[in-house]
Description:
This protein is of the alpha+beta class. The chain contains 17 helices and 10 strands. It has 2 domains: 4-50 and 260-428, no CATH class; 59-258, no CATH class. The chain has a 6-stranded mixed beta barrel with strand order 2-3-8-5-7-6. The protein is elongated and about 95 Å long.
Amino acid sequence: xxxxxxxxxxxxxxxxxxxxxxxxxxxxxxxxxxxxxxxxxxxxxxxxxxxxxxxxxxxxxxxxxxxxxxxxxxxxxxxxxxxxxxxxxxxxxxxxxxxxxxxxxxxxxxxxxxxxxxxxxxxxxxxxxxxxxxxxxxxxxxxxxxxxxxxxxxxxxxxxxxxxxxxxxxxxxxxxxxxxxxxxxxxxxxxxxxxxxxxxxxxxxxxxxxxxxxxxxxxxxxxxxxxxxxxxxxxxxxxxxxxxxxxxxxxxxxxxxxxxxxxxxxxxxxxxxxxxxxxxxxxxxxxxxxxxxxxxxxxxxxxxxxxxxxxxxxxxxxxxxxxxxxxxxxxxxxxxxxxxxxxxxxxxxxxxxxxxxxxxxxxxxxxxxxxxxxxxxxxxxxxxxxxxxxxxxxxxxxxxxxxxxxxxxxxxxxxxxxxxxxxxxxxxxxx
Length: 431
């Protein structure tokens, strides 16, 4: 109850004052929070989309390699017995050349999977968007191809393609191992260009033949990819003594450079956009210092009627807290609203720009010329993916909100320290 008067005075200083500095500071904090939430959400959409495509389609969370084929089922049972493991998928892969209806050949990576792999690995199926056909490798002569690879080869569902395994050709004898003709049963798109332009799936039986039995691997999916080290240790402890030749690796090992680059990119973007909080904080600091100087008489009066240095200082700290909290809340609400409706937001911006451009076209038509065609911020003809993705992570939103709030609070705290140097007797001596 003792400090109720400090909150009352602080609110009057903000909402009844003559200066526009609090309003500008609130707008600055709101703009910073809004921009950071939108930018980080869009970056999450792109980065997590790439990461999930890599982990769910290509590299898996944990890999077991360098073991004989006879140990495959035993290793699968050991892996699935560990809590947190959701799937264990045996596969073969090899580099190959593909030749379709067009004369040119395309290099690709071919992965051999079990025909019922989607029953085992449910997430993988959700990452493959089939433009033609479906996921069907039930027969050894079927193949699934990335959309861009099929386009380059001039192939579609029902066409034949010849695959030349580089591993098989190099070790081929008179039986022409390493070459076979397949029927295209599906054309998929993942949204990740590398996979769409250079990946194909076949039955694992063909994989053994074409790759000249180069070895089988076991890909393991887990419910939380950040628990990979813990689950890796658990799998190692369960391996029998005669399985010491098995090589285990985590997604952190074979994707270290790429994921590290994504993390660094996101960190630097966060820092660069976060500089707006420093600018706004300095503005609040200077505004609060001016407020302290202009209100020297009022401060002296508050001190004279019994207010302590800490209580008077708390008045100006409350100013910063109110500014920071109000601005951060406004930015939070607007940022989340835009982040959850990114496509609609850009469509609205495009419509506004195109409406303005259309009006200008009408005006300049009298001079016999016209402006360019419709404006598009994000065009699928230029960018590979179909729309801008967005992914909001709760902990990052909280961090951004606290950045905005604490920048104002910290600036107000340091500016208010000048209150302690004001002596009531000196200020009120000539009043």
